[in-house]
Amino acid sequence: MKGRKLSAEHIKKLTGLKRSAETCAKISKAKLGRKLSAEHIKKLTGIKRSKETKAKMSKAHKGKKRKPFSAEHKAKMSRV
């Protein structure tokens, strides 16, 4: 990992709470049957980029060389 080294205590805080199966069941039951608004569904579908933005991104990546795939990676790709 690059950057600052985190203490064990700090990492523990970042991992969040572990909920019990009972708590998860209660939350699930409370959310069951709720309808999402059209606005909320639209937000969940991801970022919509304009044609101009896509063109800028494409131009920025053109001509960049990538490292060749390793034998291990090629084997994983061929399994699909």
Q: What would your notes on this structure say?
A:
With 80 residues, the chain is an all-alpha fold. The chain is extended and about 50 Å long. The model has no long low-confidence stretch (mean pLDDT 88). The protein has a domain at 8-59. It has five helices and no strands.
Summarize this structure briefly.
By secondary structure, this protein is mainly alpha-helical. The chain is built from 5 helices and no strands.
Helices, strands, pairings?
Layout: H1 8-14, H2 21-31, H3 38-44, H4 51-61, H5 71-79
Order of helices and strands: HHHHH
Q: Which overall shape is indicated by the principal axes computed on the Cα atoms?
A: extended
Estimate percent helicity.
55-70%
- Rg (CA only): 22 Å
**How many β-strands, per DSSP?**
0
Largest sheet: none
Estimate the strand proportion: under 5%
Low-confidence runs (pLDDT<50, min 5 residues)? none
Distance between the termini: 30 Å
Please state the structural category.
mainly alpha
Mean pLDDT: 88
Helical region count?
5
